[in-house]
Amino acid sequence: MRETAELIYKDFMLEIRQRYAINGILLYVFSTIFVVQLCFGRIIDEKTWIALFWIILLFAAFNAVSKSFVQESSSRRLYYYMIASPFSVVVSKMIYNSLLMVMLGSLSLGLFTVFMGYPGLYAALFVPAFLFGSIGLASALTMVSAIASRTGNNAALMAILGFPVVLPLLLLLVKASQKSLGGPVGISEILTLLSAIILIDVVVILLAVILFPYLWRD
Amino acid sequence: MIRKNWWKLLGLLLVLYSVIAGLLIKVPALPVIHQTIRNLFYHVPMWFAMFIMLGTSLVYSILYLTGFKMKNDLMASGAVYTGIFFGIMGLVTGMIWAKFTWGDFWTNDPQLNGAAVSMMAYLAYAVLRGSIDEVAMRARISAVYNIFAFMLLVIFLGVLPRLADSSLHPGKGGNSSTMEGLDLTMRWVFYPAAIGWIIIAFWLLQLHVRKRKLTQDLTKYN
């Protein structure tokens, strides 16, 4: 537990010190949303709003998470290998990336609202779906990044491997957001959608924790 | 020879029987699908064979991770390639069926899209294997990814179509299951067809693995 916290703190400090990475992602989010605003204008129908929101967030997540293992040089990985257990390494990365995703998501939600208006999403469905979805996307992409970092051409593989892995979550999230457009949603419907999202989260995290030690060793 | 290879003969006979009987038996006259219902004997067994092959590769991947025997990696990757073959066959036969019943080669059906994306996930497996040079590392990392890919397959073909609002496939999106409506004479063709194609899939897997083993040995001695 201590180890995990230390590793999250290390990732956080690394981000603060090499500010160009996080600044690049923030600028990317800002400029894509700005371009969307220029192309579509303020008046945009709600379904397009949701589709654009999730697509932009997905690509931001790819950019943000893909560097989590790729940026670590192999000598530094060897160093972690000696001092930390694989469990705490992968869990710390997943927690850190989930926090990053929630942060990026809230930021793009804010920017979307500023530039294109707020479509009136039903918060009791949208907020938990958004939170659990961010955790799931971040964990899945963390694992994909761990796989891609062990190969020769990791940028291309990150996209090829990541796309099918995040797609079920993305489809569920778009569906949940579209349901939350029409005002209050029944509790049973909320529970069905959320339980599907949480189920995928749990499976992804469990598989990542079980399988990461095999990716980790040389 | 017969004692050792009887299962290949059985598979061939079952497939031959199902191909011939599938075209000859009387099928119930149903609206929209009419005679195309015969494609059930050819389209659905492809998916059964694909599922069995990918399940086999999952088992061998787990076995590889527990013992790190290269033989298991060979089986796992061979089973994935055979599974991809049957998946593509399933997509093609399904597309022909869709053209004659729903009017288009491709419809926006959750089952279709799920099948296409899971095929993509397994094609990505092939790319992943190609991009790692070191043999032991390739085996280990592709085994890890294979377990993920099987989870995706289950989600795409088992979970998401059932959550969907509407689907053109039976048993999904609130439709009734196929098996309830399948009449007795059709079952007599459908089950042998499924079993026959699964046996053929295992035969293909055996041939594929044998060939790759031989080429590996050849490159070793050259």
Oligomer: heterodimer
Mean pLDDT across all residues of chain A, rounded? 86
Domains of chain A, number: 1
Structural class of chain A: mainly alpha
Output the structural class of chain B.
mainly alpha
Uncertain spans of chain B: none
Structural Rg of chain A = 18 Å
Number of helices of chain A: 8
Taking the alpha carbons of the first and last residues of chain B, their distance comes to: 33 Å
Task: Kindly estimate the percentage of residues of chain B that lie in beta strands according to DSSP.
Answer: under 5%
Distance between the termini of chain A: 25 Å
Chain-wise SSE layout:
The complex is a heterodimer of chains A (218) and B (222).
Chain A: H1 2-17, H2 19-40, H3 46-70, H4 74-83, H5 86-116, H6 123-148, H7 154-179, H8 187-216
Helix pairs in contact in A: 1-2, 1-5, 2-3, 2-5, 3-5, 3-6, 3-7, 5-6, 5-8, 6-7, 6-8, 7-8
Chain B: H1 2-24, H2 40-67, H3 70-101, H4 110-130, H5 135-163, H6 178-181, H7 184-221
Helix pairs in contact in B: 1-7, 2-3, 2-5, 2-7, 3-4, 3-5, 3-7, 4-5
Explain how this protein is built.
The complex is a heterodimer of chains A (218) and B (222). Chain A has 218 residues and is mainly alpha-helical. Chain A has one domain (2-216). Helix content of chain A is 85%, strand content 0%. Chain A has helices spanning 2-17, 19-40, 46-70, 74-83, 86-116, 123-148, 154-179, 187-216. In chain A, α2 (19-40) runs antiparallel to α3 (46-70), α2 (19-40) packs parallel to α5 and α3 (46-70) packs antiparallel against α7 (154-179). Chain A starts with a helix and ends with a helix. Chain B is an all-alpha fold. Chain B has one domain (41-173, 182-213). Chain B is built from seven helices and no strands. Chain B has helices spanning 2-24, 40-67, 70-101, 110-130, 135-163, 178-181, 184-221. The radius of gyration of chain B is 19 Å and the shape is globular. The two termini of chain B are 33 Å apart. In chain B, 36% of the residues are buried. The A-B interface holds A 143, 147, 150-153, 157, 160-161, 163-165, 167-168, 171-172, 192, 196, 199-200, 203-204, 207, 211, 214-215, 218 and B 65, 117-118, 120-121, 124, 127-128, 131-133, 137, 140-141, 143-145, 147-149, 151-152, 155-156, 159-160, 163.
